[in-house]
Specification:
Blueprint lengths: L1 E8 L14 E4 L4 H7 L9 E4 L2 E2 L11 E5 L6
Parallel strand pairs: 1-5
Antiparallel strand pairs: 1-2, 3-4, 3-5
């Protein structure tokens, strides 16, 4: 069984966003961390993760219709 989620990668991660980002297929039971690993998102480049507008950790299991947003660390001066 599979699910479909919307994926948004922001700032420097945007180039890793898949072509299917608006309706990305994943196996049922996939965690946020597993989904990001499958997209080749470097773990050290993940600062904030949101599912459906709520901050979550990488162990959160994704569900059909979820909206996943990922932000990298931001540097400034």
């Amino acid at each position: 069984m599979s699910i479909r989620v919307q994926i948004r990668l922001y700032a420097s991660l945007r180039g890793l966003e898949p072509p299917s980002a608006s309706n990305h297929p994943l196996p049922s039971g996939t965690t946020v961390g597993e989904a990001l690993a499958g997209l080749k998102v470097p773990g050290d480049q993940v600062k904030l993760v949101f599912v459906n507008g709520r901050k979550v950790d990488l162990q959160r299991v994704l569900e059909d219709g979820d909206r996943l947003g990922v932000f990298p660390p931001v540097g400034g001066g």
